[in-house]
Amino acid sequence: MKRVSIGIMASGGGHTGYGKAIGEALKDLVPEINIIYYVPRGDKWTLERIKPLLFNGSSIEYILKPREPYDPLYRFLFKTPASMVEALAKVHNLLLLVATGSNHSLFAGLAAMAKRIPVLNIEATDRIIYPSKTPRILYRLGAITLLHWREQKKLYPRGIVVGPIYEKPRYKPTSRGYILVTTGTMGHKILFDKLLETGIENIVLQTGRIPPEKYRDKKPGWIVFSFDPDIDKWIAGAEVVVTHQGITALNAALSYGKPVVIAYNPLLKKSSSREDAIVLARKLNAVFIDPLKTSSKELEEAILKARDMKPRRYRNGAYVIARHIIKILLSL
After folding, report:
1. Which of 11, 201, 213, 256 has the most Cβ atoms closer than 10 angstroms to its Cβ?
2. Structural domain includes residue 149
């Protein structure tokens, strides 16, 4: 059967953000292109984020994700056979596959290589000092590796620097006077509990997988919810965005021009180090804090300081990648 589509891994959290940004750029440049988004089986939040992109022939397939950020190693080993089988069965009839960094991309990338489908390999924006495991494996096997920052060339000498990848703004930026706290699918309990000790009342808090009831009960003046697939509307209206290391920091700073506080999450140290988060904050002209070492007063001061800091500007690497994909397709 003739290969008909581009495959993009939308693997949850920031990895979904990279896939979404690249998909948006491709559709802007080539509206008729067909895109298959590969979503972790059972990940309803990623599904909701991808649904708005399903037009002009684009579709979704499901591949089991071997390991979530907090999972022990045995869960990865247990899920590996099923993930491999699903990847081999579903990664086919593609002109090209975009792997966005998660272990969810590993077996899909290997399946694509086995079938001689070109693979574009994306490293994470917050992996500047230490490489991620899956992108490193795919790089060593010959995948075309695309990077956000020049510093990442030390990790991937053959990599191509395209600039930071961030999503298109969906709303016009305004300032409705609230502080948005959003730390991805997994949440950031250390930060949330520290916020409870502050006197800040104008908080909009997305808790992710952390139950929101505690924060609603203790702070009835806050707006608290676990998930909103349209988080952009909250980013667009925020005065300051407090988030952890990752693509939300990029979207807030670069898509919407919002001041950002990056609150390092030590529970994600397997995915991103404290040193990486510090460098990312410097890149964006954001305020860095470590909630484990920050008092409630210092947290308030960090948010006040961020109000006066304008983010740096960068070209959107998603469009550079989209043009690169078009060149590859024309050469096939």
Report:
1. 11
2. yes
